[in-house]
Amino acid sequence: MDATSLRRKLTVSAALGLLLVPGCHAAEDALPYAEAIRFSPDSLEHLRTHTVAVQAEHSTVSYRYPVLGESHPLTIEVRTRMAERQTAFLEELPDRGSPGLTQDVELLAASEHVIGTRTTAVTSGTPGDGTEAATLWYDSATGEVLPWTSLFRDEQALENAHLAVADVLQDGYDLSFEQLPGLVGEVAARAEAGSDPASAAASAPDEASGAAGAAGAPRQAPAEESAEQTPQDGGSDLADPEQAWEAAERWSASPLADLAFSTAGGLAVRMDPAVVPSAGRVDEVLLPVEPEEAEELLSELGYHARSAAVAGNSDPGDFPFDGTLTAEGATLDCERLKCVALTFDDGPGEHTEELLDTLDEYDAKATFYVLGSLVDEFPEIVERTHAEGHELGNHTWKHDDLTTLSAAGVTKDLDRTDKAIQEVTGELPPTLRPPYGALNGTVRSATRHPIILWDVDTMDWQSRDTDAVAQHALEETQPGSVVLFHDIHKTSVDAIPEVLEGLHGDGYHFVTVSEIFGLGGMEPGALHTDARVS
């Protein structure tokens, strides 16, 4: 469907949206008000959400996000941003109190063309208590995750959108020209002075507008940087992902960064009530940009997004994502995060289920290098390990030194173990860890698996000392580390609660070997010890 067709369908879609959006009301408010379209992922029947709460001695963190598909770009971006926010929160904990961070995702639109998300982060018990919100948009035609600026034609349209907000504040909320907050006031001042919007979009704000808080202005840029970024011929092409992201950085303090569509088919722009004194005692101010004004501002993606939102959205079963919409898969970009891969060798065994219970308390995913002979002995434990999102790796049939075998012997041993794991989990193990870390050219050429060793060896098999094992893991782990434990030892399993709490408090995220390395970059027989970023 082209943009023109979408515009023609707006009137019908708007009427339908009024019927479909919960909480919608037709009565006129005393002040201009937009009914924003935001809805829970739980309202879509076939869409699964993942919810986690981690209660530690020093803090509580919780989050919820929709699972859009195996390694889906939007799932990865949303989840990674949540993880970045969690790390920043944990790294800045106060010395006392019970601080908390809660993050949640709402949907702004959902169709076969586009998905819009709004992530909120609420902090408590810290000096910076409050709520932050950020929106992202996924364009299924290109497979790109895009910022809010991609909903607009160009930066001229961004300027005009801010002027529309200024009009609402002046005409509907009785703000004087001088009271217009932050970036809205700056854009209005530029328009009043007759500035060229194309060059104004990259101009740096002054101190007064930059101090306006949630409705403040874009990042200050050196003069030479602004000159390089000044759009020509009316502004950046926001249909280009790179230019849209660059524009989002320049306009990062815009109230339109927390933008939704309204049930009337226009825009709903959220502003902090503190900068709109006539709004009264309300939690948020949602300013309307009327449909006819929005009509001239939106890009083709913007029209698709508005159509999806106002029409009541679609069931995810209709999305063209190859049947993987609710599948698991990678959910974090470890190149941007403090990730660690905890690995456990020689099981499963009598202590593995206790370990699984502990890992679950932190939503920690680990990798278990299992022996094929024990898979046959403990199939229920292997099945549970897989079902809870952990990864199973090949550790040979019964812990033989592979360097003592011929190529045919290596292949036979590994194939037998692969088959045992696949029969229980339905999947082949993606990686190999040779017993003792013993390798030679024969082993490397005979396996179809990437080979994973480690960079942090807790020596738990030797010391059998819970405190020493935990201390070593906490002291030696770095972002990208692969840490070696053995879940057949009770002393090792007993060390894991301290390891998890300590690393969690330092802002780490616990992922599988495949997530930390990325299987796309690992070749059969290739050796990997860690994913540290130099």
Automatic annotation (TrEMBL):
Keywords: Hydrolase, Metal-binding, Signal. Residues 196-224 have a biased composition (Low complexity). Transmembrane segments: none annotated. Pfam families: Polysacc_deac_1. Residues 196-250 are annotated as: Disordered. Residues 1-26 form the signal peptide. SUPFAM superfamilies: Glycoside hydrolase/deacetylase (SSF88713). Residues 338-511 form the NodB homology domain. This is Peptidoglycan/xylan/chitin deacetylase (PgdA/CDA1 family). It comes from Nocardiopsis terrae.
